[in-house]
Design goal:
A hairpin with a 7-residue loop joins strand 3 and strand 4. It is built from eight helices and five strands. The chain has a three-stranded antiparallel β-sheet with strand order 1-5-2. Helix content is 45%, strand content 13%.
Length: 197
């Protein structure tokens, strides 16, 4: 935050170290859409998620990413998700009102796919098949780790877009955790954005 405030006052060098009025300055910059000052500081977050959700995150091209490579390391962890009904009026929405039996079927089906996929993956590795080929046997809910680095402006935009109700729930939960981390690391920025912790 000190870097953001310092750079924001580039035209007022005698006042650049003044952090007392930083909340008002950042609030003013947000109100008047002076977003470039938020590009002066970066943040990197480690995210553990599934390959399916990672694909959505990787679409945010203003970030730099480093991801667990299934070409070189063995994948063995999975993330099991709950089921929701497809919203017939909004294809980007799902509704959590499925019968308990259908939800249980979905969980058990994921476990079966995970078990079968992992067994075939292990067999492939046992046959000497390269990890980069064997990984094609793994389901989309195979766990991956991402390092996501971007400037504060990119994080603000990502959180505003992905913490929104229109985002898939599993991705929205990640964005909400990112918002919490940003709010802890940049409390003055969070206050200026009127983000409650």
């Amino acid at each position: 935050e000190e870097i953001i405030v310092y750079c924001a006052r580039v035209s007022n060098p005698k006042n650049q170290d003044n952090m007392e009025t930083a909340p008002g300055l950042l609030k003013y910059c947000i109100k008047h859409k002076h977003w470039s000052i938020f590009e002066m500081a970066d943040m990197c977050i480690e995210i553990k998620t599934s390959r399916a959700i990672a694909q959505q995150i990787l679409r945010h091209r203003s970030f730099n990413f480093q991801e667990f490579s299934q070409r070189y390391a063995k994948a063995t962890e999975f993330i099991t998700y709950g089921a929701r009904r497809q919203d017939l009026e909004n294809r980007q929405n799902s509704i959590d009102d499925l019968p308990a039996g259908d939800k249980e079927w979905f969980l058990e089906s994921q476990k079966k796919v995970q078990k079968d996929g992992l067994a075939l993956y292990e067999q492939a590795l046992g046959k000497g098949i390269a990890k980069e080929c064997a990984r094609f046997l793994l389901p989309l809910n195979t766990q991956t780790t991402l390092y996501m680095k971007g400037n504060v402006r990119s994080w603000i935009h990502y959180i505003m877009v992905r913490a929104d109700e229109s985002t898939q729930q599993e991705h929205r939960e990640i964005a909400q955790k990112c918002k919490k981390i940003l709010s802890e690391q940049f409390p003055t920025v969070a206050k200026a954005l009127e983000w409650s912790q």
